[in-house]
Write a structure and sequence with these properties.
By secondary structure, the chain is an alpha/beta fold. The protein has a single domain, classed as Aconitase, domain 4, CATH 3.20.19. Helices cover 32% and strands 16% of the residues. It has 8 helices and 7 strands.
Amino acid sequence: MKTVKHIVSRTAVLPTKDIDTDQIIPARFLTTTSREGLGKNAFYDLRYEGDGSVNESFALNRPEAQGCRILVAGKNFGCGSSREHAPWALLDFGLQAIISTEIADIFRNNSLKNGLVPIIVDENTHAWLLENPGIELSIDVDGATLTLPDDTAVSFQIDAFAKHCLVEGVDQLGFLQQQQEKIGEFEETRKWKP
């Protein structure tokens, strides 16, 4: 996993509520266990018309959304099934952070484990972000702050272990592997043996 300490990017806005994981990555594209290549199918049924042509009206297809790594999403983003492919697809699509007032728990946890930063903000901040697409935001993962263009800092909650893993660029397995010496020491010095 890549180190995620700071994210600075313009925002793309997708104000639709209840975007579920099947809208993020349709089930027909879940035939792979690889994280690479899923981005081309992210939001597929929203990004493309039935004939395969580009849906020009979809927010992430607009020219001003190109290159944005922060998505300001509607309430209850990532609801639905627990597919880990959803954060994989968003990361491969180029996103690094999702901001909303509500992000589904399983999706949020899968995102944190894979290097996508889910940020929950208050209603007023969220409304302002939705009304001002394309602004540049700065996200400090270690400090758990989102800085607006006027230098207003908005704090957000992030699990301490997840933050450690993001900042250090390790997943859960990588963290455990870093503890091998301590694990070995514990196994040697414990009073009971299996």
